[in-house]
């Protein structure tokens, strides 16, 4: 819910009352300003953004999603754009450049100093989706042969070059990672002690590793940061816990969106143009509409069976809904397990066997209940059909729902894409086939 100050700021932006807007914006907190910018279209948000002091404007800008940042840049003056872009961290610049047209990206890069342009270009050289694009190259490792006193002095004199001061990578003479040392350990050690004597074994990731997997690994081990190395184990950057949290949050948001059958907006909802929202949903709706034709085709094939035993039609929503829900439960559970590293692609057979047993047990319980209710109303024959179908559909749906995310991961696709919408459609069509085959066998039609 918006605060009274945020509502007044939005009203002043809409009415064009620049004098009052300037006064209120100067008094507002950074969280208030971020909330306002996220609740209005980018062009209107830029009106208030121009009135902010440089340091406050940068804080607000850094808090926005990369897509929203790109929209805001379109509405700002060139000189303000250059100032903001220069002050961003290299990893934030790389994320923003992915959202703007190539001509704009080239212009922004040309405005950087040679040093800053080099760091940003280095990140852009890594594949999209890799941790190399999201790490900070602002890291100054210390050599293992240096003393603690030397290292502490290095931290004092070059602190602005460090993304984090709490975890310092340690390298050998060839810049290869050999350990890490914490600021706490350095403070408690004697000044003449050698770094190699207090460093610990490093947990690192390669710059080409998947960003989401690496971020989740860092959060799982509970460290403040993780060194990032190249193919030869040379230090090229560091991933901090706050950046890891952002990566995981963005990935989870994307998964939730795709579970619901649409693409993530990558911008705050209220500030996203209506046409962009339509584009994020229409493709999935078209795909699902085409997929649903399979269900219609199945019904058409078994039209004569339905004509002979009309009561079978009454149970179609129950069976398709149960199959879809069972498959989605399995897919959601396994997708989450993949994200946390509890399950790997090599575990596909173990997951299939496990979900088949789970589905069979669920189907047995639901099938027994369905048999009892259907038998009381429509007789033993129909009850048997419903019971056996529920048993079969639940077993099939859980098995398919469990292995589909793993297959997707193995072929490099997003497991979330193979979640609710596609599994529901697949289970609908397959479940109907099983239903009518069982009905024909039991009823002799």
Automatic annotation (TrEMBL):
GO terms for cellular component: plasma membrane. GO terms for molecular function: magnesium ion transmembrane transporter activity; metal ion binding. CDD domains: CBS_pair_Mg_transporter. It is found in: Cell membrane; Membrane. Residues 135-198 form the CBS domain. It holds the Pfam family CBS. It is a multi-pass membrane protein. InterPro entries: CBS_dom, CBS_dom_sf, Mg_transptr_MgtE_intracell_dom, MgtE_N_sf, MgtE_transporter, SLC41_membr_dom, SLC41_membr_dom_sf. Coiled coil: none annotated. The keyword Kinase does not apply. The keyword Coiled coil does not apply. Keywords: CBS domain, Cell membrane, Magnesium, Membrane, Metal-binding, Transmembrane, Transmembrane helix, Transport. The chain crosses the membrane at residues 282-299, 306-324, 358-378, 385-407, 422-443. Belongs to the SLC41A transporter family. PANTHER family: MAGNESIUM TRANSPORTER MGTE (PTHR43773:SF1). Homodimer. Acts as a magnesium transporter. This is Magnesium transporter MgtE. It comes from Bowdeniella nasicola.
């Amino acid at each position: 819910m918006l605060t009274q100050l945020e509502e007044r700021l939005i009203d002043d932006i809409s009415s064009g009352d620049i004098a009052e807007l300037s006064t209120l914006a100067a008094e507002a907190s950074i969280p208030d300003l971020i909330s306002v910018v996220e609740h209005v279209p980018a062009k209107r948000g830029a009106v208030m953004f121009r009135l902010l002091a440089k340091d406050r404007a940068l804080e607000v800008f850094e808090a926005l999603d990369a897509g929203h940042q790109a929209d805001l840049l379109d509405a700002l003056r060139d000189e303000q754009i250059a100032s903001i872009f220069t002050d961003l961290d290299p990893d934030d610049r790389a994320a923003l450049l992915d959202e703007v047209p190539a001509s704009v990206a080239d212009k922004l890069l040309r405005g950087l100093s040679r040093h800053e342009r080099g760091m940003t270009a280095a990140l852009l050289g890594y594949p999209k989706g890799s941790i190399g694009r999201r790490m900070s190259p602002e890291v100054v490792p210390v050599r293992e042969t240096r003393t603690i006193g030397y290292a502490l002095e290095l931290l004092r004199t070059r602190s602005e070059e460090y993304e984090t001061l709490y975890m310092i990578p340690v390298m050998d003479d060839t810049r290869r990672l050999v350990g890490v040392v914490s600021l706490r350990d350095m403070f408690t050690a004697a000044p003449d002690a050698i770094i190699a004597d207090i460093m610990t074994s490093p947990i690192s990731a390669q710059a080409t590793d998947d960003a989401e997997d690496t971020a989740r690994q860092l959060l799982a081990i509970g460290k403040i940061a993780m060194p990032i190395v190249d193919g030869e184990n040379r230090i090229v950057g560091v991933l901090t816990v706050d950046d890891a949290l952002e990566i995981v949050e963005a990935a989870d948001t994307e998964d939730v969106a795709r579970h619901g059958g649409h693409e993530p907006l990558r911008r705050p909802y209220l500030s996203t143009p209506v046409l962009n929202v339509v584009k994020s949903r229409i493709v999935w709706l078209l795909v699902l509409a085409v997929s649903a034709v399979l269900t219609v085709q199945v019904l058409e094939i078994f039209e004569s069976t339905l004509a002979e035993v009309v009561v079978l039609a009454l149970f179609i929503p129950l069976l398709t809904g149960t199959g879809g829900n069972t498959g989605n439960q399995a897919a959601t559970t396994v997708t989450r397990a993949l994200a946390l590293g509890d399950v790997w692609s090599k575990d596909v057979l173990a997951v299939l066997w496990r979900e088949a047993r789970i589905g069979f047990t669920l189907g047995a319980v639901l099938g027994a209940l369905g048999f009892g209710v259907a038998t009381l109303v429509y007789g033993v024959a129909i009850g048997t059909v419903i019971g056996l179908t529920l048993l079969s559909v639940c077993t099939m749906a859980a098995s398919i729902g469990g292995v589909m995310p793993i297959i997707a991961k193995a072929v490099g696709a997003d497991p979330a894409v193979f979640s609710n919408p596609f599994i529901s459609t697949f289970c609908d069509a397959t479940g109907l086939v099983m239903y009518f085959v069982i009905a024909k066998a039991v009823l002799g039609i």
